[in-house]
Amino acid sequence: TFDRAWALRDGDWTVVAAKSGYHNKGFQAWEKTRNFPADDDSPVELYHMASDLGQRKNVAAEHPERVLAMQEKLQEIRDRGHSAPRLAKP
User: If DSSP codes are grouped into helix, strand and coil, which group holds residue 27?
Assistant: First the structure.
């Protein structure tokens, strides 16, 4: 299940806050032929979408401040129960 898997896109960045961002092992053969990297077992994944649309290079270790800021933003959204500003109570 995906009940403990969360992701957040913020501008050009995407953070995957889950044990693994890989949920469907059914595409492993397809990915192997396209040189997708294996899961690096990192506790969090960060991708710069403008330069890595295919989310192939986890740059979390290179941008810990970005990871922390995005994790905090994701937690705020989860605590609020929604991400849509229109649902916020005045």
Answer: helix
Strand order in the sheet with 45-48: 6-10, 13-17, 45-48
Torsion of CA 16, 67, 71, 11, to 10 degrees: -80
| Of 77 and 23, more confident | 77
What is the C-alpha to C-alpha distance for residues 73 and 61, in angstroms, rounded to an integer? 19
Q: For residue 61, what are the contacts with CB-CB under 8 A and spacing of at least 6?
A: 42
Beta bridge mates, 8: 15
Residue 19: its pLDDT value, please? 57
Indicate if the pLDDT at residue 2 is higher than 60. Answer: no
